[in-house]
Specification:
4 strands; 52% helix; two-stranded antiparallel sheet; mainly alpha; 9 helices
Length: 184
């Protein structure tokens, strides 16, 4: 079996994406999103972008957990892990957690220059999808083939590429050798 496809994680993109989702949540007036909504939106966005544009947005490591895929590095960023803050050269993030809720703490604009137009479009679609589902429906929607194949381990990017994607083999060929070098 070939080595799994891996990407270099982009923390700047993750911070910009989380920040943007919190802005959308403020605008929609439905209250602060929970961790589950944000984490599943990241998964839905990465998977959709990978299938459409042959690269994910974040390059996160996804673990298949009981309530769906969790992008491990993004979860750590939401919790403001000091090592990620140091890597980013930051002292803090523009949000705080209260239990399962993630709350925007200021009015600064997200650093959208870290996200391409296609990144932002996939992220917005995924966030609106995740935000519109109940916890149980989000969990069910994320329990896809990639999640099942991981058997509560790490999800392989290869499994995130849809079986019916007409470009599946070309995507796999393109990513199999140098995905870890890509600037996602």
């Amino acid at each position: 079996m070939p080595a799994p496809i891996r990407f270099r994680f982009r923390p700047q993109k993750a911070v910009a994406a989380i920040h943007q989702m919190l802005f959308w949540a403020r605008e929609d007036g439905l209250g602060d999103p929970d961790l589950h909504t944000i984490l599943k939106a990241c998964y839905f966005a990465d998977k959709a972008h990978l299938n459409a544009h042959w690269r994910p947005i974040f390059g996160a490591t996804y673990r298949a957990m009981a309530y769906g895929p969790v992008p491990l590095e993004i979860y750590e960023l939401i919790k403001a892990e000091p090592l990620w803050l140091a890597e980013l050269g930051r002292d803090d993030v523009p949000w705080r957690r209260e239990g399962y809720r993630v709350i925007l703490t200021g009015n600064d604009q997200p650093a959208l220059e870290h996200l391409s137009l296609s990144d932002r479009e996939a992220l917005e679609t995924a966030f609106r999808k995740a935000r519109g589902l109940t916890f149980n429906a989000r969990t069910a929607a994320s329990h896809d083939q990639a999640w099942e194949r991981a058997r509560l381990g790490l999800i392989r990017y290869e499994d995130m590429i849809a079986e019916d994607n007409p470009d599946r083999e070309a995507i796999l060929d393109a990513l199999s050798e140098d995905a870890h070098l890509m600037d996602v």
